[in-house]
Each structure stands twice: as C-alpha cells, then as structure tokens.
Amino acid sequence: MSDGVTSNRTWDERQSDAREVLGTMIGVDGATADKIADGMERRLGALGTFASSAVMGDLWCRPQLSRRDRSLVVVSVLMAQARDEELELHVANALNHGMTRTEVDELLLHVAAYAGFPAAMASVRRVDNAYNKLDGNPEGTRRERPAAEHLSDAERDARAADVRRTLTAGRAAADPATDMANMQGLLGDVGALAFRFAFGEVWSRPQLSRRDRSLCVIAILAALGQAHELGVHVPGGLNHGLTRTEIEEVMVQMCLYAGFPRAVDGMLAAKAAFAKIDARAAR
Asked: Running DSSP on this structure, what letter comes out for residue 173?
C-alpha cells in the first residue's frame, strides 16, 4: 500500500490499488473487482474512471486512517448530506471494513445532533435498506433497535460534565451545575440543550468510543463547513486520542466526499486549531 496522492505512482499501480480497495469494500476477489471497475468506466465514462483511480486508487489506499475509520467518516458525511443511494452502499462497505451495526446506528445520533433530526430520520431508513439487502429481507422491513436509557436531568448533567471534561482536557468545570450554567450563560437555551442532549445523552453513550465520536463529529462539521465548531472539536478530538495526522486525513477524505472547498476550509480550521494549541504550550 502506498501513501496515496503524495507518491509518484503509475496509472497501473493506482489501478492495482483501486482493485484491492474495491475488493475489501464489497468482499469480492480481484477478478470480480476488475469487472466491476471496468463496468463503472463503461457506464459512467470519465466519472467512472476517476471513481476508480482517484477515489479508490488514491484516497482509500492511504495509510493515514484505517479503512474502518475511513468508512466511519464517509458514512457520517453521507448521512449528514442525505446522500441516500451512496449511503446504502457505504453502510455495507463499513461492515466489510470492521464496523458493527451497533456502531453504524450510533452515528445516526450524532447526525441528529450535528446535522438535524430530519437528516437522521431519512438516514435510518437508508441504513435499514442496506441491512435488508444484506439479510435478504423484503424492502421496507424495519429493524427494531434498543431504546436509550431514560435519564433524569441530574443524570444527564453528570454525564455531560464528564464528557466535557475529557473533551476539554479538564478545562471545563467539574461541577455539573457550574458547567451547565457556563454553557447556558454563553449560549442561552441552545447551550442548555447542547449540554444535556448532545453531551449528556449522545456523547456519553458507550456504543462508540469518544475517539470515534470525535472522528464522526469532525467529519460532519467539515462536510457542513462549520469552521467555528471545528475550532472546538479539533482540540477535543486530540484530547480523545486522535492524532493531528488523522484529523488532517479527515480533510483529505473530504476532498472527494464533500468537495474541495469544504476540504480546504476544514484543513485551514484544523491547522488554526493546532496553531492555538502550540501557542498555548509555548507560553
């Protein structure tokens, strides 16, 4: 495996990588992957050529993120963007890359919080379609999912404060009432809802690690062009175990899944966040 777009590879080398990536995505042998890629070119023309050579031959074969993590990023972005048919395909890819159905379902909650419930509600239907195809169930079959815990406000506040302490590396107030008051003082009832729902209920769930939750949220924010929020969640991602290389690689993935303008804005926001961290450490 090469380092992708930064290396000097021939067309044949990129095509070889593309076939291997396609094979892991959909679980087929090399000969079948060749036929699928050739069919994409015949059906889609130049778009099919670049889907193979650039998306799979350059982007997906880069080692800076695992394929499981790339799938997490792409599924999160497709959910947030309501890219219905592509989402169904990439849910299946994500399972082949090592994600579980529980983890895929958990991404829906972050989409609800960071891109809105309409996007999440539309996405859950597409996720169910993907599962039905894999399971051989009739189209439209709905999958039962476990409900969330029914928490009191005190329980939500305690969990939110714990999340905020890890997200900020201990800078947020340890006392839940104080931290809640700080967020509400800054953002009014938006802050209160963010504290109790986003942090107290979604972020605190054990079905995904906080590292993976940060990866998901950074991807969604980059895809939606939310540079200000990236200034909060890029440092949070580092505090949750992501590396700078991994965060920058999210922006590389955005080039071909959200477009170069979003990728450029996301990379600039990430580098600005890194610079602030470095400046603070140098004092």
From this structure: -
CATH number at residue 73: 1.20.1290.10
CA distance 266 to 269: 5
pLDDT at 68 over 70: yes
**Which residue, 203, 228, 263, sits at the end of a domain?**
203
90: domain range?
A: 67-135
H helix runs in the chain, sequence order: 11-26, 30-44, 46-50, 67-81, 84-96, 101-114, 117-135, 153-167, 176-187, 189-193, 210-223, 227-239, 244-257, 260-282
Q: Give the separation between CA 283 and CA 278, rounded to whole angstroms.
A: 9
Residue 247 lies in a domain: no
**pLDDT tens, residue by residue, 184-238:** 999 999 999 999 999 999 999 999 999 999 999 999 999 999 999 999 999 999 9
The three-point CA angle 254-217-219 to 5° equals 5
pTM of the predicted structure, to 2 decimals? 0.95
Residues listed for the chain: 283
End-to-end, the C-alpha distance of the chain in Å comes to 41
